[in-house]
Amino acid sequence: MTIRNLDALFRPRSVALVGATRRPLSVGATVLDNLMAGGFTGPVYLVNPKYATLAGVPCYPSIGALPAPPDLAILCTPAATIPGLVAALGAIGTRAAIVLSAGFEGPADSAAGAMRQAVLDAARPYLLRVLGPNCLGLIAPGVRLNASFAPGAAIAGTLAFATQSGALATAVLDWAKSRQIGFSHFISLGDSADVDVADVLDYLARDSATRAILLYIEAVRNGARFMSAARAAARSKPVLIIKAGRSAQAARAAASHTGALAGTDGVYDAAIRRAGMLRIDTTEALFDAVEMLARLQGVRGARLAILTNGGGAGVMAIDALADGGGTLASLFDQTLARLDEVLPATWPRANPIDIIGDAPVRRYQEAHAILCDAPEVDAVLMIHAPTAIVPAAEIAAALVSAQSGRKPLMTAWLGGETVQQARQLCQRAGLPTFETPEQAVRAFLQACEYYANQQLLMRTPPADDTSRPADKVLARGIVAAALSGGRKMLMEPEAKAVLAAYGIPVVPTETAHSVDDAVHKAAGLGYPVALKILSPDITHKSTAGGVALGLADAAGVRSAGHDMLARIRQDLPEARLDGFTIQPMVSHSDSFELIAGVATDRVFGPVLLFGHGGVDTEHIRDTAVALPPLDALLARDLISRTRVGRLLQGWRGHPGIDREQLLDVLVQLSRMVCDIPEIVELDVNPLLASPHGVIALDARIAVAVPSGAEPRLSIQPYPEALEERITCNGRSYVIRPVRPSDEASYQAYFRQLTAEDVHARYYCAFREPDHDQLARLTQIDYAREMVFIVTSTDPSGQGAMLGEVRAVADPDNAQAEFGIAVRSDCHGQGLGKLLLDKMVRYARSRGTGALVGSTLRHNAAMLALARRCGFTVKAVLGEDCVSLHLALV
Question: Which EC numbers does the record give (predicted)?
């Protein structure tokens, strides 16, 4: 992950076009026309030995003949020439190249794949960045750069669009121009041999000219890089994504129900949701989303009021809202009373608010103002069908002038020519405008989903959300023993022992090596019992006829055991049979059979699954997936995304299950998969849940030796190994990474800081941080940021927070910017030195190039601390602060 030299790609000072030509309809001619028409203000160099000049610009015979190295080169020559051209450009100092040429598609071991690798090998020694190959190019209206062969230019604006599809790029560009929507960047990624989605997200997240980001992706190659960049970008600005490929064929064959149910597309859904982005399903919906993102601001709830001059249009909107799972605002009595004062007596006194077809402009204004005042309304949709009484443009002008911004307002102008001026007035005023009620409702629901995802990104876990101790040594030993024995699947008793090591309740299970032994063990457990075959070669025991339930006595066990052996020996003669497992039958009234498990996605790594369990789980397909690590709030969200999850709360006299224990099981499964990298698939099915508790009736775990080539988890979990107990001046402290559950501790910590200390650390006046600010301080991406806090007691988080040091690395890891503060009443106790030394050791272990920071000139204590820790202190000319620098490599 790197943004190195991307400034040369997106904001070049000079550009070269290699392969420029005047041949009609060629890529080289189209790019030349676009480049000239765009009005790029820097030097433009053309390279083609066939011409002396093109479009009045000198044309050079080779790269070596250029008078100066261009920041950016655009290459539209045959694929075979590209590696040599990239090497020549790198040698003269060019920092970025756009490869428009095709011919690089194919696997790594193909001729095309070898050529693609040759391009990267040519660029690497010079740190030259490559966009493409096989891309449309890019447009950066802010610097008047059109380095593409798109049919036309983009309007300047604040949306950035990046796509892996050239065809979709041209469609979005054309549509946006018709709606006067502008772009800060318009980027065709092509095959993403070098510059990929994660790099672009990192760059755009830092770009002040970009207010929102739109993505179209077909595949992600590195889930961890993508998630880290996406989460960082989504915290700073809205990110919308359309992901192609929802087909069922994407689900791979798997040894477990969980693997089959998770599915590739479901994992992408989980990743997008966890990153705080919004997924768009179709190209049509993407256009609506662009309108929503560009114009609909301030959505903070899902309760929609519909204001219309026709009942039928309102019904259409209600249907769309219901189909999308939206909420129609229920109007309070006081709101209805106020509407009664301004609407005809015949209005239906309900939402939708039908103000009747003869409504004058004033009626629209007054009804809209009342809805803006209504606390039970989060947003308003105004639907207008054209009438001969009042021109639509007059209504639009009145709404535009009256719009105060208190509540989001959307408009849907039904019809064509008669409402065109009204649409244009609303568009120019920045009001989201749609042609149908369905489009408007869909955009509103997208805005609501985006807001919910952002809330999930900024959620506050419970303060006591710390896992209880687990017997990791026991669990890891069981897994290691299986792998050393050449097995890829744990036996059922082993799998249950691993679950029990993490505190997950499991049904008592005995192992029997013969039918007679099974009868003996069953008597000890007490009837009725369940009998299951024990075999390393049989994964789904029910399918193989290896499960007998509700056996009431010894005769039943004996008969079932003999029948089971005979059937399996006939149907699966190669299967190794090691005996049986016996367990008491566990059943409760008001219980549910659930499934909880783990699968490993080839892009995003381990994912957790929850849903409706039992033998029919793959047919019912009521499941949801989430990326680990999970806390209780994320586990609750996972449950809520299933149909069975709604039933677990209880209904019509049926009590709800023990929800807290179910949440704990999911959190412990998440912890297990983070702790034990050898687990590749895990099924707990059925997981029986009732008001009396939760218990695992069956379990299977698939294991493998981890490759270690890439980060296994897409989201780095809490780095427990970095916790440290330290004694300083006779006092004991704990220094540990920050947790999301530390929000309350941070709030108390800020209350103990003086205004002077706040200004010295944060360069701002003292005020108590709100939830969003505290969430940003405590919910960090450990892959690119680290915060160590010092507490007065143990690492459970219960001790008082006394200080913090924070370092945020740039995507290149070339340097990390740090800041440090100690509670005002704890100065002089050596805590600052402890914290800064800890951060220096950590940054050095990650290979960070340098720690940098700044402090006020008069902050003598910080200056002394920095010098003691080896930092170089340098005054910044003309400013009231000094820079701090410590080289680490």
Answer: 2.3.1.-
